[in-house]
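Hello again, I could really use a second opinion on something today. I owe you a coffee for this, so here goes:
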Amino acid sequence: MSSGAPVDPVEERLARRLDALSPETHPVIHRSAGMLHALGRLDLAAYTAVARMSTPVLDVPLRRLSHFANFSKPWFLTAAGLALLGGPTGRRAAVTGVAAIGAASLLVNQPMKMLGDRRRPDRATHDVPAERWVSMPTSTSFPSGHSASALAFAVAVSDVVPAIRVPLGAVAGTVAFSRVYTGVHYPGDVIVGAVTGALLGRLVSRVGGRLARR
């Protein structure tokens, strides 16, 4: 999807489908459509608010971080460090974290993105400063794969090594925010991706913990 494509929030597309149903026979569905319209407006308003933030000192660091997070590089490097320096616990944390990334990538980048089928934001229309721009991905926008992988890894690894929960969570959260800041995702994409990743990270860590105890 190109950045010049018209804005088509996933909430709005779903709301239009619900609007096509008869309000007399489907009142609950129509109330749901109204909520989706409101969420779509809120999502776009939040995206615009971030675009208008006057924080040039953050432009280069967040742009570089967002680019560096492609293909989960920060998380694979962290996993390598844990495996090499963290002893048996570090190795288990590394394996758990990589497994969580795999689970998040499989779910988010395949069925969820295909079902969401949301166009990427138009950065020029919403005045995202060019100094922030990274390459616009060709995949659909909803949900954010970067956010899902970041939170999946952070949660899974932190469950094994709680001492690094805060710094790991801070970096993961910053990566997620950078996707909105650089203009390649709507906030709703990032929130859903992050929540999905966190849930999968917790699930993978629990499964891994049970296997380790056997």
Remarks:
- The chain has one domain: 10-213.
- The domain at 10-213 is CATH 1.10.606.20 (Vanadium-containing Chloroperoxidase; domain 2).
